[in-house]
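Checklist before submission:
- one chain only
- standard amino acids only
- sequence pasted in full

Submission:
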Amino acid sequence: MASIDTNIQSWLAQLDPISLDEMGSIKLMNRTDTKFVTNKRKLARLLELAQGKYYAQQIDGARIANYRTVYWDTPEHRFFLEHHNKRAPRQKIRVRTYVDSDLTFLEVKTKNNHGRTKKKRITVPDHERADIVAAGGSDFTRGLTGVTFEDIDPTVQNRFQRITLVNKGKTERLTIDFNVQFHNYETAHDAGTGDLVIIELKRDGNVYSPVLEILRRLRIKPSGFSKYCIGSVLTNEGLKSNLFKPKIIRIRKLVGAK
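Returned file contents:
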């Protein structure tokens, strides 16, 4: 595993850098999002094939960023079940910290009937309920979901690392998440995902995408993946999960788990 991680870091270091300020100038007005799931071995190959075609986001000299996210849900697991039951529109409430910059946001994600996802967020001090409420969190979630922080509790936390790539034409962003670890606040169970890699392609309409050719070459196919739902299933056996079982089986095959 160490050699794979070293290989990933080596190819990542050879990509031209792009700063956070430059990233802010990239506006994807007609955005489409597509997720892919693979493993670290294929990620190393993808980064090799991306040479000359992509920039790597770099912040304070680092090209791998650390994230912490806590998802909040009702006691009946409303938001988990909306996703499991394929309801649309559906929503999720989460508090995400960009660990390296110590910035935390309360976010509400809404996926509409056309498969488009919109995210709204406000800045909050930390992950504590009282501090989130004091920062206007309950008013924010009430307006978007109908629930306040009196109605919900923290359910699943994840921690992961992320690489962000931008194509040379600046018409798409690629987020690459790995080393995902879950903790369930209800069951106190933990779970990891081995060398699983989650890729999300965010591009401007149907413009040419270099990475789609690379993904096809590597036989990496589109595959939906919700960190909240998969993390919930892996750490809470009491949840309804029959529609997620084929995805769990596929994930285990990808990472060579039994």
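Reviewer check: The chain has one domain: 2-254.
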